[in-house]
Amino acid sequence: MREEVSPVQREIQQRKPFRSRSQEGVVALLRTADVVRRYIGRVLEPYGITPQQFNVLRILRGAGSEGIPTLTIGERMIEEAPGITRLLDRLEAKGLVRRERCPEDRRQVLCYAAPAGLELLEQIDGAMDAADDEALGMLSEEDKTELIRLLDAVRAGHR
Amino acid sequence: MREEVSPVQREIQQRKPFRSRSQEGVVALLRTADVVRRYIGRVLEPYGITPQQFNVLRILRGAGSEGIPTLTIGERMIEEAPGITRLLDRLEAKGLVRRERCPEDRRQVLCYAAPAGLELLEQIDGAMDAADDEALGMLSEEDKTELIRLLDAVRAGHR
DNA sequence: CGAAAACACTTGACGTGTCAACTATTGATC
DNA sequence: GATCAATAGTTGACACGTCAAGTGTTTTCG
Fold first, then answer.
1. Rg of chain A's alpha carbons, rounded to an integer?
2. Quick one: pLDDT at residue A116?
3. Yes or no, beta carbons of A30 and B12 under 8 Å apart
4. Which residue of A129, B25, B70, B131 sits 20 to 30 Å from the alpha carbon of B89, by its own alpha carbon?
């Protein structure tokens, strides 16, 4: 029975085998997400926008003309508020986003996608659809479904 | 036939369904990795070290007394050199790492885990094993194996 | 009603990731 | 053997991400 060496193990040039499936899984998950994140980043680069900024813009587009408060954006991404504030600062500086205090509750700041932001999104949409397919293109539809199921289960376990 | 709403979709409070399995998969992958990354980060926090720093230390421990050049560390993580240089700067400042120019090839900088770094790692090892198990604890061994297989396939496709 | 608690951010400090440009060496070549 | 390309790192500028603390605004409640 010969020694099996997993792909992840080879990648990180590790001599010792993983202590458990769990350890190998965590490493594989984090490394794979990094690879995909970078890939998406490169696709977005020509449009002068980062993955996070793109994400926020998509959320704002989804919110429509009603706008959406800063913290709500943070919930839909996974991030804490401080990051969102500054992300919006940069998007606003680029003219892709508009913000204004909510009249009903002056603690809140409502955020909207500016026209320029919506236009940019439309330019990107096609490329991003292609990028998503490309990113997981090596998996069959069944594999994708299975991957999604497993990932959903992992997140569900964290609460 | 009723409308199915995926967990990811619910999480990001998205009204429109995903355009494709690929899109849903990419979102699930990135979100799940974020969740796990944060979890690992919280486990490490009491030890005054970040996930990346822990990662580098483990790599240095693996390299042993021969040391390992800066760029090689970068290859085993996925990062670019600049990040590694500064990561090492901080670890050296904490006394967890030692660096010196390689006499054979003075362009290289050999890095070693300092004794304090090795001690810290030993203190953490147990907690990290437990954390890995906890992170994927909701999956059966078969599910973990399947997840690893799918993730390996995704990374293999990116090259 | 008025003080205290709860909210919704915002700001500051720091760790990390990326790219581009720069320095120091080493290797390759005519 | 001097020149030029390739290496190995470092540095600067900027986008995030996190935590802790600070600023207004409601809410809650005695």
1. 20
2. 97
3. no
4. B131
B114-137 pLDDT, tens per residue? Answer: 999 999 999 999 999 999 999 999
Q: Strand C positions with any atom < 7 Å from protein CB? A: 7-13, 15-21, 24-27
Quote the pTM value. 0.91
Q: b/e map of A84-106 (b: 16 or more CB within 10 Å)?
A: beebbeebeeeebbbbeeeeeee
User: Is residue B84's pLDDT more than 70?
Assistant: yes
Measured to protein CB atoms, the chain D nucleotides within 7 Å are 7-13, 15-21, 24-27
Cα angle value A42/A45/A50 (rounded, 5°): 95
Q: What is the pLDDT of residue B90?
A: 97
